[in-house]
Amino acid sequence: MSDAIYRPQRRFSLIWLVPIVAGLLGIWLAVTTLLEQGPTVRITFQTADGLEAGKTKLKYKDVEIGTVTDVQFSDHFSDVVAVADIDKDAAGLMANGTKLWIVRPQLGISGVSGLGTLLSGSYIAIDPGQGERQESFTGLEEPPPLQSDAPGRRYVLHSETLGSISRGAPISYLGITIGKVLDYRLDAGRSGLIIDIFVNSPHDEMIRDSSRFWNASGIDVSIGGDGVNVKLASLRSLLIGGIEVETPDLDIPGEPSAEGHAYTLFDSHDEVITAGYSERIPLLAYFEGSVRGLRVGAPVEFSGIQIGTVTDIALEYERDTSGFRIAVGFEVEPDRVRPIGQRLVDVDPYIALDQFVARGLRAKLKSGNLLTGELIVSLEFVPDAPPAKAKRIGSRVEVPTAASDMDQIARSAEGFLDQLSKLDLPKLMDEVRKTVASVNALVGAPEMKDIIVQLDRSLGSVERIAASVEGQSGPLVASLRKVADDAARLTEQARMTLVSVDGVIGQQAPIPTETRVLMKELISATRSIRMFADYLDRHPEALIRGKAGGSQ
Fold it and tell me: Are residues 535 and 498 in the same domain?
């Protein structure tokens, strides 16, 4: 009988299913978590203000797309790094060109922002880029001026100075804000500025190649020939500056400018108007004396109407005469003159100006404002001006000059003062005092009193003679003639005295005026005596019968 071999039967224990299932479930959960988990990104900021691990969220259009899990220092402790987990669905937002910044409550001259964070806390905002995905970013310390998906167009302005314009300054059309300033920088040659602006849709349809931009700061004060000009814009422009834009002939159908089109930024609307005159004739004038008060940009006027602008002022040295002269360059804009027939620009400027100069056209300096001392250039036709011709000097035409009214007054005053300085004033005043004393002595002299007394006696004799009428016509006439002759002699003496007095102290002095009245009475009396004597000589019977009616 053989021995039986016992072989035990191996069976799989169900107890092993538990760890296996648990392991498989763990693997599945891990794989699922990894598959559903978004990327982890590192964002570098200068400070950790507003960052808190486990609480600070990342948002795009106010939708949470991640959370800051840790805040660390950079390698050299110069910055802080926020480590954040991003949702899988938002992973595509973390690309090259994405902008990230911390939204905090901010109060600035351009307005108030981030008020919602007072309750919810600060968060990191995102403006996605369009490049490849990346995991390291440098955060912005200030919010970007414009979101990448904002509807509208960007344009470029070229300016020599920035003035009061700042980032975020408004772009206005007829007082309505239609855009804002994004940024500014120096141009390639470092001689000017490039200003990036953005015009919101649909207002960007109004921006055409003919549009004109100018600096519209909150307050613009200028002093010129027409006095003090003050222009005020909005309060916001007063604080952060602003830019105005206008588009001529906007009612005419046309295409808007392409994005990135460049424009010139003018300093003021007055410069915009001046720039609209494309036709310019360059002129030159040489002035004598000082041009203090004349500045570049001063108006050139004809009969008080501006027709141009001063462009440059230079001091020139003439080697031949070893002298100096002042050259003033200016431009005349013929479009400022309303044409009746042919315009000035349609003819040769040399020929046209030569004709005007031959008729007496001259350039003069005139006071534009007595308060500020500002000078302007005035083109005038001067009567009896010396013959002259317009000269071509390079690209310019020289216009002869004439002395200004102020120069003529100054020269007259200078001549008067020069003559006055040559006078011996103390001696002159002493002579005047002596002359006045002599006049007073002459008027009050006894001789003058004797003349009046003798005239009075002569008139009394005439009265007595007229009363004596008995047979004395011959002797009476002779006596009357003697009285008339004596009165005439005395009257002439008085007249000469009066002339001497008048020549010394003037016609309007009180003493000569009284003497003159007396002289008139004396002359009238003498004339009456002569006429009476002549009548008696022809009609002696009148002493007896009286004067016949109508007889002479």
Answer: yes
| pLDDT score for 82 | 94
Quote the DSSP letter at residue 199: E
Same structural domain, 290 and 267 = no
Q: What is the 3-state secondary structure (H, E, C) of 143-178?
A: CCCCCCCCCEEEEEEEECCCCCCCCCCEEEECCEEE
Which one, of 110, 65, 56, lies nearest residue 88 by Cα? 65
Of 151, 270, 146, 169, the residue nearest 217 (C-alpha):
169
Please check whether residues 443 and 475 belong to one and the same domain: yes
Across the beta sheet with 361-369, the strand order is 361-369, 374-381, 299-302, 305-318, 323-332, 281-287, 396-398, 391-393
Contact by Cβ (8 Å): 85, 69: yes
pTM: 0.54
Q: Which helix H or strand E contains 441, and what residues bound it? A: helix 425-443
- How far CA 366 is from CA of 385, 403, 407, 487, 498, in Å, comes to 18, 10, 10, 65, 50
Are residues 269 and 288 located together in one domain of the fold? no
Q: How many domains does the chain have?
A: 4
- Return the exposure string of 127-145: e unless at least 16 CB atoms fall within 10 Å of the residue's CB, then b: bbbeeeeeeebebeeebeb
105-154 per-position pLDDT tens digit: 766 555 555 566 666 788 999 999 888 889 899 999 888 888 888 899 99
Cβ-Cβ contacts under 8 Å for 328 (sequence gap 6 or more): 284, 285, 286, 287, 291, 294, 310, 312, 313, 363, 377
| Residues 330 and 396 reside in one and the same domain | yes
Residue ending a domain, choose from 114, 138, 162: 138
Are residue 311 and residue 395 in the same domain, yes or no? yes
What residues contact residue 496 under an 8 Å CB cut-off, 6+ apart? none
The residues pairing with 223 across neighbouring beta strands, listed in sequence order, are 228
Q: Whats the size of the chain, residue-wise?
A: 552
**422 domain residue, yes or no:** no
Q: C-alpha 536: how far from its chain's center?
A: 89
317 shares a domain with 288: yes
Token digits for 349?
A: 């400027």
Residues 159-204 pLDDT 10s? 988 887 888 888 999 888 999 999 999 988 888 999 999 999 999 9
Of the residues 138, 162, 197, the one at which a domain ends: 138
Element at 312 (helix H, strand E): strand 305-318
Q: Which domain holds residue 442?
A: 427-545
User: Which of 180-184, 393-397, 545-549 is modeled with the greatest confidence?
Assistant: 180-184
- Identify whether residues 441 and 523 lie together within a single domain: yes
Is pLDDT above 70 for 34?
Answer: no
Tell me the CA distances in angstroms from 405 to 55, 285, 365, 386, one per residue in order.
Answer: 81, 17, 8, 17
In a domain, 1, yes or no: no
